[in-house]
Amino acid sequence: MHLFLLLILQLPAANGQIDPEHCRYALGMEDGRISDEDLTASSRWYETTGPQYARLNCEGGDGAWCPEGQLEPSDSQYLQIDLRRLAFLTLFGTQGRYARGLGKEFAREYRLNYSRDGQLWKSWKDRLGKEVLEGNKNTYGVFSNDLKPPIIARYVRVIPVTRLSTTVCMRVELYGCPWEDGLVSYSAPEGQLMMLPSYPHISLNDSTYDGVRDKRKLSGGLGQLTDGVTGQDNFLKTRQYKVWLGYDYLGWRNDTPGTRGYVEMEFVFDRLRNFTSMKVHSNNMFSRGVKIFSSVSCWFKPYLTASWEPEAVSFSTILDDRNPSARYVTVPLNHRTARSIRCRFYYADVWMMFSEVSFQSAAAPSASSTSDEGNTPILIGCLVTIILLLVIIIFLILWCQCVCKVLEKAPRQILDEEVTVRLSSCSDTIILQTPPVPPRSRHPPTGPTNTDPYYERVFLLDPQYQNPAMLRNKLPELSQSAEASACGGGYAEPDITQCTPHQSFNNSAPHYAETDIVRLQGVTGSNMYAVPALTVDSLTRKDISAAEFPRHQLIFREKLGEGQFGEVHLCEAEGLPEFLGEGSPLPDRDGRSVLVAVKQLRADATGQARNDFLKEIKIMSRLDDPNIIRLLCVCVSSDPLCMVTEYMENGDLNMFLSQREIESTLTHANNIPSVSLSDLLHMAVQISSGMKYLASLNFVHRDLATRNCLLDRRLTIKIADFGMSRNLYSSDYYRIQGRAVLPIRWMAWESILLGKFTTASDVWAFGVTLWEIFTLCKEQPYSLLSDEQVIENSGEFFRNQGRQIFLYAPPLCPPSLFELMMRCWSRNITDRPTFEGLYQALRPHVNQ
Ligand SMILES: *[C@@H]1O[C@H](CO)[C@@H](O)[C@H](O)[C@H]1NC(C)=O
Ligand SMILES: *[C@@H]1O[C@H](CO)[C@@H](O)[C@H](O)[C@H]1NC(C)=O
Ligand SMILES: *[C@@H]1O[C@H](CO)[C@@H](O)[C@H](O)[C@H]1NC(C)=O
C-alpha cells in the first residue's frame, strides 16, 4: 500500500498551475490533429508545397511548405497555424524539405508571431528581447527551440528569416498544452523599482508583458504572471540567467502616491467561465518588507461591456510571520461566473510581489441547478478515483501473479542468446503496477482530460537539465522521482517490470541486476566480459596462458582510473617486445618501451574479487582479435596481482573524436584537428568486427561505448573496457546507492528493466556507439534527459506505444546508417541485427 499512498499524495500536485516542464505535448502537426484547413500561408510556390505539407516528419506533397519564389531578407512570408483553442506553447520544432533526399531547402532562422484573437498580432521575443530563432542546418534534422517566455495564443505564424536571397521550405511542430486558464489578458500597474542599500536597483517590472504600457499601467496583454515561472523565496534570486535582480516578480510599493492601500488588477477571459478559485504566487520575505496580501476583493462581470456586479467575493489571508517562503495563495471564487474579474489586493506590508496568477474554472455553465456545496463533487471524484485505483491495483496483483509464472519461462522464449544474470525472482519482490501517473498538468485529477490520450507527452528537452546549478535546485524532486520510477511509478502498464520492495531502495537489499553487476564489476570497477558457462572455482596458474612479466620493468606513468578493488595505471613496459618475442603484434611503439595499461588488484581485496580478477585474466587470455584489446602478460606470482594489456597512444575514441571537427576546407585552412566521414565509417566497421568476434565466442561485453574503444596512430580501434573505472566518464554511469554503476544511456531496455545482458543488448549499445561516433562525441546520449528519465524511457521502449524517445539522427550520419542504428534499438531482440549483419552492412560504406 506504500505506493498507493504515494499516488494519493501525488494527486494534489496534478491540480496545480501550468508547469512548463511538463507542458510539452506535440499539438498535432505531425499526427494530423491540426487539420489542413487550419493551415494557411502568405503564399505557396506550388500546390504541392502548400501549407498543408508543413507537418514535421511528414513527406506529403513535395515534402514541405515553401513560400513562393526566392525569399529576400526584407520579406515576411509566413505559415499560419490555427490551433482552434488557446494553447500554452513551450517548444517549437522545425525541419527543412527532405523529400527523400531531393529537397534542398530549409530555413536557417525564423521568427514567430502569435495572436490570441486572430486580429492583434504580436511578435515573440525571448527574455533578452531577441526575436530571431535558430532554425535548421540541413534538410532532415529537427531543431527545436524552447520558447522562453512561452507563448499563449490560438494562432501562430512562422516567419522564415534569411540574410541572403534564397528559397526556403519548412516543416514544423508546436509543443505545449491547452491553456485551461482561458485568461487572455490582465491589466495591472507596472511594477516598480526597489532600492536596497548595497544592491543595484531591483526592477520588479513585467518585462515580458505583451500588451500596452501606458502611463505606468499595463493593459491588454499577458506577461510574467502567466509564464509558468514562479519566483523564489528570496526575490533577489532569479531563475533566469543574465537578467536583473527581482526579475521573476512583479512588485508594488505601498506608499507611492496614488495607491490606496491596494493594487487593482483586471483579468479578461476567452469566454464566460465558472470560477472555483484563483491562485496567486506571492513572495513573503518579510525581513525585506514583503508580504502576501492581507485580503482581496473581487468583482465580476458576465460580458465585457457589462458593469461590475455589486456583490464582491472577499477573502482574508492568514498572515504568516514565521515562514518567509514564497507561496501560492488560493482565493476561493465561490463558483461565480464571469468573463472578466477585477480584484483589489490589499497590502500587508510595504511591498507586495507576485510571480504567477492562475485561475481554476470550468467552461461556461449550462444553467445546471446542482447544489452549491463546493467541495462535494471534488470529494466524490476523489473517492471514485481511489476506488478505481484500488480495483486496478488488485487486478494487477492478480494478473501479475500469472505473469510471473510466465516470466520464469519467458527468457528462453524472448532471448535467443541466453546469457543473463540472475534476476531477483518474483517471490522475493513485490510487483507494483499503477495506472499512469499523469505528468503534472493543470487538469484536475478527476477531470476527463486527465487520461486524455489526445496530447502525447514529449519528454523534457529543457537545457536547464544540462546546467548543473539548475539541476541541484531540482535535486530533491529528482531523487523522489527516482524512487517513484524505480518502484513502479514510472512504469504504468501491467508489465514485466520487476521491482524490489520500496524500502529496499534505501537499504542494502539488491536492486534488479545490482548484485550481479557488483560482483562482476569486481576488481577495477570494470565488468569485463560476462561469460556464459565458465565456472572458475579453482583457477590455477596453469589456466592462465599469459606469461609472467617481471614487475620491476613496469614503469608507472599515470593513473587512468580506479575502482572498488583496484586501479588501472598507464605504464611503460621496458623490454616488452623482447619479452613477448617475435611475431607478437604490438601496438605502435617508438624505441624499446611500449605503453601498456596495467590493471592491478588492491592487496586488501576480498577473496571473491581475487577470484574475479583471475577469471577476467583467463577470459582475456582467450581473446585474440585485431580489434579487441589484447592481454599481453600478467604479474600473478606475487601480490598485487596485475594484468597488462595493450594501450594506445591516441587514447580512447571518445576523447579523440570530441577534440575534432569534421574535415572541411575550413579545418584545413585553420589547421583544426579533423576526421573525415570515411574515417568515421572505418571506425564503425572495426568496432563491428571486434564485436562480431566477441559474439562468436558468446561473450557479452556489457559496456560498449566510445570511451571503451582505444585508438592507435593509424586509427586502428581496439575494444577495451576501462569505462567504469575512470572518473572522467563517471557521468556516463548511473549510480545505485553509490555502489553499482550502470551505463544506462548505452543499455538496452531489457538490461535496464530486467538486468538481461546479451549479445543483442551489446548490439543496442553498438547503435549508441555509432551515434556517438557520428556526433563526434560532442554530446552525451539523451543529454537532455536526466538519468531517471532515461530509465523511464526504457519503460516506454518496453511498452512500445510510440512514446519512446530515440536518439536523433546526427547531421553527419547518412540516412541509411541511421536506419541501421534504429534497427539496433528495436524493441524485440530478434528484430535487431547481429554483429555479423552489422559488419556486412557497414563494410561496403567504407570504400565509397
Ligand atoms: C508580426 O508582428 C508584428 C507586430 O509585432 C507586425 O509588425 C508584423 O507585421 C507581423 N508579421 C506578420 C507576418 O504577421
Ligand atoms: C524592466 O527593468 C529592467 C531593469 O531595470 C530594464 O532593463 C527593462 O528595460 C525593463 N523592462 C521594461 C519592459 O520596461
Ligand atoms: C458553477 O459550477 C458549480 C459546480 O461545478 C455549480 O454548482 C454552480 O452552479 C455553477 N455556477 C453557475 C452560476 O452555474
Automatic annotation (TrEMBL):
Matching PROSITE patterns: FA58C_2, FA58C_3, PROTEIN_KINASE_DOM, PROTEIN_KINASE_TYR, RECEPTOR_TYR_KIN_II
Coiled coil: none
Protein name, entry field: receptor protein-tyrosine kinase
EC number: 2.7.10.1
Signal peptide feature range: 1-16
Main location group: membrane
The Protein kinase domain, residue ranges: 554-846
Keyword Acetylation: no
Subcellular location: Cell membrane
Membrane topology, from the record: Single-pass type I membrane protein
Enzyme kind, highest EC tier: transferase
